[in-house]
Amino acid sequence: MNSYLALILGAVLGSSLRYFINLLNYSIAGLPVTTILVNISGSALAGLFLNKVNGTNYIFLYIGLLGSFTTLSSFNIDMFNLLSD
Fold it and tell me: Residue 74 in contact with residue 35, Cβ under 8 Å?
């Protein structure tokens, strides 16, 4: 598979998954639980597959899927909203 295609497919899947999980909009005492769970699960998956994938599969999984799934911008927005309340 072409590297660019792997990146695009991974990013589409990761961002779509993140979008549907964020629709739950679950929070406890004002804490954005969905964002925290997404970032923890994405980091755990990255650690789980560390040194097990390479080449185009690495681009698909790490850069595309997990990169778009655990976007830092969503975390920053949630933390800004939490601190400004």
Answer: yes
Beta strand pairing status for 31-32 and 27-28? antiparallel
DSSP for 52-76 reads T--THHHIIIIIIIIHHHT-HHHHH
Per-residue model confidence as pLDDT tens digits over 63-77 = 999 998 987 667 677
**Based on the number of CB atoms within 10 Å of its own CB, is 83 exposed (0-12), middle (13-18) or buried (19 or more)?**
exposed
Name residue, tokens 């804490």.
Answer: 31
Task: Tell me how far apart the alpha carbons of residues 8 and 59 are, in angstroms, rounded to a whole number.
Answer: 10
